[in-house]
Write a structure and sequence with these properties.
By secondary structure, the protein is α/β, with parallel strands linked by helices. It folds into two domains: 249 residues, Aldolase class I (TIM Barrel), CATH 3.20.20; 75 residues, Non-ribosomal Peptide Synthetase Peptidyl Carrier Protein, Chain A (Orthogonal Bundle). Strands 3-4-5-6-7-10-11-12 form an eight-stranded parallel barrel, surrounded by six helices. Helix 4 runs parallel beside helix 6, helix 9 packs across helix 10 and helix 12 packs antiparallel against helix 13. The longest helix has 19 residues.
Length: 387
C-alpha cells in the first residue's frame, strides 16, 4: 500500500467506469476529472509545465483582471501568457464590469488563443471584493447574471466556467443563486470551494454542502477544498456526487500529486511520494524555469517561497529554510540544498501540511458601499417579485 494518512487508510482506488471525464465542449474533455486551481503568483507558465509533466488534467492560469486586459495593461498581458507546450490554454478572469469582461474574453480567445475561460466568483481578498468582484459578485445576482452572460458572449464558441464559494459568510450564503445563474447563462460547469469568503482558508471545507449543490445543479459540479491526498479526491466525489475536483493548496510544492491523482483514477495504487533527493531535483528544474521566464532577479524572488514549500516537513529542512528565504541566486539555493540528506523519504506527517494561505478567518468581507442593499433588490427582481 502506498504512503497515505490514517484518514485514507481504507479508501480504495477508482473502480473501472466509476468516474467519467468532465466535458468542457464537444472537442475538449478533462480526464482524470482534475483541475489545477488558478492561484495568483503560483499557476504561472513555469509551474503549469511542472505539473503537466507529472500527470493529466486541466491546468488553469492565474486569474487576471478583466479591465487590465481590456485596457491592454502590460503587466496584465504578461500574466495572460502561455508556453509553447500548452496544448490547452485555460485562464481565469475577474471583474464586476460586464463590458470589460466581454472585451477581455474576446481578447483572450482572438488574440491569446484561449481554449477555456473561467470566471472568478470566489476570491475573498479585500482588494478584489471591495471592488465588487470575486466572492462579492454573487451577492448581486442581477449583476452576476450580466457578467456571466457578457463573458459567454465574448468567448464565442469557447467554453466558459465559473469558480465560486459557498457565500459571503454563514448568514449570507450565495451558492444557490450562483448555481442557477451560471447554468442559466451558459456556463459549462461550476466549481465550488466549500468555504465562505469570511472563512478564507480556515476550518474544514464543508463537503456536505457540495452534495446539496450537486443536487440543485443542472451542469457539472467540481468540488474544491481540503484535497491534500489523491484519495481525498475520490472520497469527495463519492460523498458528494461531484463530477470532478479542483486542486489548490494541496499541490503547492507537491506537483507529483497530479501523478498520484492520475493513477488512482485509473484504478492503480499510487506511486509513493518522492524522496528528498528527487524533490530537490524537481525544485531545481522549477527554479531554472522561473529564471528563464521572469529573468534572474524576479525569478529568484519568486523562487524563495517555493523553496519553503518543497522542503516543508522534511527532517532538518528547517535549519536551511531561513537561508533559502533570502537567496539572491540559483547558486546560493544549490548551496543550501546540498546540506540536506537526499535519501530522506517523504514524511507521512507532511502529506496534509498546509504550505500557504494558512491565515485565519475574517470578521467582515469588504464590500462596496450599498452592495448588499442593491443585491437584495436584484434578488427580488430576479425572482419575479416586487420590492
Amino acid at each position: 500500500m502506498s504512503l497515505r494518512s490514517s484518514l485514507n487508510a481504507s479508501v480504495p482506488v477508482a473502480a473501472p467506469g466509476e468516474f467519467a471525464p468532465v466535458a468542457l465542449s464537444p472537442e475538449l474533455s478533462v480526464w482524470p476529472p482534475v483541475v489545477l486551481a488558478p492561484m495568483a503568483g503560483v499557476t504561472n507558465p513555469p509551474y503549469r509545465s511542472i505539473c503537466r509533466q507529472q500527470g493529466a488534467g486541466l491546468y488553469v492560469a492565474e486569474m487576471v483582471h478583466a479591465r487590465g486586459l481590456a485596457e491592454q495593461d502590460s503587466k496584465t498581458l504578461g500574466l495572460a501568457s502561455f508556453g509553447p507546450d500548452e496544448a490547452v490554454r485555460s485562464i481565469q478572469i475577474f471583474g464586476a464590469d460586464p463590458v470589460a469582461m466581454e472585451t477581455a474574453a474576446r481578447f483572450l480567445v482572438e488574440e491569446v488563443g484561449a481554449h477555456h475561460i473561467d470566471i472568478n466568483l470566489g476570491c475573498p481578498v479585500r482588494k478584489v471584493t471591495s471592488k465588487g468582484a470575486g466572492s462579492a459578485l454573487p451577492a448581486r445576482p442581477g449583476l452576476m447574471r450580466e457578467v456571466i452572460a457578457a463573458t459567454v458572449r465574448g468567448a464565442g464558441d469557447r467554453p466558459v466556467t465559473v469558480k465560486a464559494r459557498l457565500g459571503l459568510d454563514d448568514e449570507r450564503m450565495t451558492w444557490q443563486d450562483t448555481v442557477d445563474v451560471a447554468a442559466g447563462e451558459g456556463a459549462r460547469w461550476i466549481s465550488v470551494h466549500a468555504r465562505t469568503a469570511a472563512q478564507l482558508y480556515s476550518g474544514q471545507a464543508r463537503w456536505n454542502v457540495l452534495g446539496e449543490i450537486k443536487e440543485r445543479a443542472t451542469i457539472p459540479v467540481l468540488g474544491n477544498g481540503d484535497i491534500w491526498e489523491a484519495f481525498d479526491a475520490l472520497r469527495m466525489m463519492r460523498e458528494t456526487g461531484c463530477d470532478g475536483v479542483v486542486i489548490g493548496r494541496g499541490c503547492l510544492g507537491r506537483p507529483w500529486l497530479f501523478r498520484e491523482l492520475a493513477e488512482v483514477f485509473d484504478g492503480q495504487e499510487p506511486t509513493d511520494p518522492p524522496r528528498l533527493g528527487e524533490v530537490l531535483g524537481i525544485l531545481q528544474e522549477h527554479a531554472e524555469r522561473l529564471v528563464d521566464f521572469f529573468g534572474e532577479r524576479k525569478g529568484v524572488l519568486e523562487l524563495r517561497k517555493w523553496c519553503s514549500w518543497y522542503t516543508k516537513g522534511f527532517p532538518g529542512a528547517a535549519v536551511v529554510r531561513g537561508g533559502l528565504q533570502s537567496i539572491e541566486s540559483l547558486e546560493q539555493m544549490r548551496g543550501y540544498l546540498a546540506q540536506l540528506d537526499p535519501d530522506l523519504p517523504f514524511p507521512q506527517r507532511a502529506l496534509r501540511v498546509a504550505r500557504a494561505k494558512r491565515g485565519g478567518s475574517q470578521d467582515k468581507v469588504a464590500l462596496p458601499d450599498g452592495w448588499l442593499d442593491l443585491g437584495a433588490q436584484e434578488a427580488v427582481e430576479q425572482r419575479g417579485g416586487r420590492q
